[in-house]
Amino acid sequence: MSAAGLTDGRPSAGFKRVFGWYARRLVRKRFAAIRAMPGAMDVLCAIGSHDGPAIVAMNHSSWWDPMIPCVLHPMTAGERGVFAPIDEAMLRKFRFFARCGLFGVEPDSPASLSRLADYSAREFAREPRSTLWITPQGRFADVRSPIVLRPGVGVVAHRARGPKVAVLAVEYGFWTEQRPEVFLSARIVDAPSEASARGWHRAIEASLSSACHDLADAVMTRDPARFEMVFGGAGATINPVYDAMLRARGQGAAIDVRARRAGVR
User: Fold this and answer.
1) pLDDT above 50 for 237
2) Which one of 41, 108, 131, 236 is most buried, by most CB atoms within 10 A?
3) Are residues 26 and 117 in the same domain?
4) Rounded to the nearest 10 degrees, what angle do helices 152-159 and 112-126 cross at?
């Protein structure tokens, strides 16, 4: 426990590998695919290879949000250190998250800002090549709602030395498969001309708003050509026996909408 009675992270490399395997397996089971807009994975790889502190700020619309970094971080950052804040009440309920590097905050407490900033500064000082994953909206918010961030992430970015900062827009939706899909868009946040916490806050908020807007436009087209496949996309399934019958006939369970997309009547 920290001096404030909040739970500190107790990262375990072995536990993180095991939980990462479980999270990737769970996401693959529950989602038909993860699709990323062109360049998104390059952005995350740039974060992963940065020789210093890094921050990835995500929008927060779903229970699944913490699982997405568990899939993406090992793919793009290898063994790079990682930590993230979580509501203290949830961390006390699911204590194993501390072994993944999560630390407790009380989002509605005025002290949460200093807790986030101080803890992040200590982690970056202890292990400069580490990444803070954060959902700075601080609450669940619909993807169609305007992006409004709490002030903590700007303070963390301002106090870090030479940080590489990115935003990751995430959306979940159904296209033509039985299971939903995950859609991603990411971009690097340029250091603001106003070298302050407020400057970073505005830059991150504007970048995340733009990424979410562009992602929504692409998702609404339902055009796979607008995305790169991260995993999945092998085709729909209905039932193992019926799927085998369809394959024997040279058919599949997926719905073919190419003609409709091309405007053929």
Assistant:
1) no
2) 131
3) yes
4) 30
Q: How far apart (Å, rounded) are the C-alpha atoms in residues 10 and 54? A: 20
More confident residue, 169 or 244: 169
CA separation for the pair 137, 168 (Å, rounded): 13
Cα separation, 169 vs 186, in Å, equals 6
Is 180 in the same domain as 259? Answer: no
Q: Report if residue 127 sits inside a domain.
A: yes
The pLDDT tens digits for 199-230 are 999 999 999 999 999 999 999 999 999 999 99
Considering only CA atoms, which of 158, 187, 185, 205 is closest in space to residue 46? 187
Half-sphere exposure of 27 (CA within 13 A, CB side): 26
Q: In CATH, what number is assigned to the domain containing residue 148? A: 3.40.1130.10
Give the chain's domain count: 2
Q: Which domain holds residue 265?
A: 237-265
Residues 202 and 92 in one domain: yes
Tell if the pTM clears 0.90, that is, is over it. Answer: no
The pLDDT of residue 78 is 82
Residues forming a β-bridge with 169: 185
The tokens for 72 are 């993406």
Its sign, for the CA torsion 209, 210, 211, 212, is positive
* Whether residues 145 and 249 fall in one domain: no
Q: Do residues 241 and 222 both lie within one domain?
A: no
Give the span between the Cα atoms of 110 and 239, in whole angstroms: 52
Give phi and psi for 151, each to the nearest 5: -75, -10
Q: 76 in a domain, yes or no?
A: yes
